[in-house]
Design brief:
With about 220 residues, the chain is α+β, with helices and mostly antiparallel strands. The protein is about 30% helix and about 20% strand. A hairpin with a 4-residue loop joins strand 7 and strand 8. The chain is globular, with a radius of gyration of 22 Å.
Length: about 220
């Protein structure tokens, strides 16, 4: 029903997001589509911002925070005061993009370290959450209580799973059990991978799931 929507345009993507809101389907369509977006890049040429559905977009905060913010302030003052401003070169823009990427990596690394350190106090009690990301080797769970994300490896699950890159599902090769985005699960804290600064979880199997197939929920349990 949505095949005719042009998701490559900002307007089409915005319409697609609206139409998939609360859509009753076997897979979480909106969550799957949202994960196809790439991070925005700096450019001299205005271009659509897919995620926000805008024909053009820029952002800035305090001019003391980073140079891109400072430069946007300069541009605004130049327009308001009608004064010329020397433009950045292509090389300078590329270097600015690379510097922002490195700064983002550093911030993410620090945040992961702090979260991993905090997770050591989670205890052994089961915790509820939802699957936030899936990969061929397992899935990430975001805890309801505090928003922490941890990884459940397929190596800790019984049997073998195949990854569907279209629906972003993990499907058991024999009994058809499925793990997919936005699916509620229960997990316990299993430690921290210090090298990756990654929190590790173990999946908690409920009696109802065990009874369904002998190893877990059946393929109809697509929450």
């Amino acid at each position: 029903d949505l095949a005719q929507v042009d998701a490559t345009s900002a307007e089409g993507f915005r319409d697609l997001m609206k139409q998939t809101e609360g859509l009753d389907s076997e897979v979480p369509v909106k969550a799957i589509i949202s994960r196809q977006l790439a991070r925005a890049e700096l450019s001299f040429t205005p271009a659509p911002h897919q995620g926000m559905g805008l024909a053009a977009y820029t952002t800035f905060t305090s001019p003391l925070r980073k140079f891109s913010d400072f430069h946007v302030h300069r541009l605004i003052k130049s327009i308001l005061w009608q004064e010329p401003l020397s433009e950045l070169s292509e090389e300078q823009l590329a270097e600015l993009q690379l510097t922002q990427f490195r700064a983002r990596q550093a911030a993410n690394s620090l945040e992961s370290w702090l979260k991993s350190d905090f997770a050591r106090n989670l205890g052994e009690e089961p915790m509820t959450g939802v699957i936030s990301r899936t990969t061929p080797s397992g899935f990430f769970v975001r805890l309801d209580a505090n928003g922490l994300e941890g990884f459940v490896s397929c190596k800790t699950l019984e049997g073998k799973f195949s990854f569907d890159p279209v629906t972003l599902r993990l499907v058991h090769n024999k009994n058809g059990r499925i793990f997919q985005l936005e699916q509620p699960v229960s997990v316990t804290y299993a430690g921290v991978d210090d090298e990756r600064k990654q929190i590790l979880f173990n999946l908690v199997e409920t009696p109802a799931e065990d009874a369904a197939t002998g190893t877990g929920a059946d393929s109809t349990d697509d929450a």
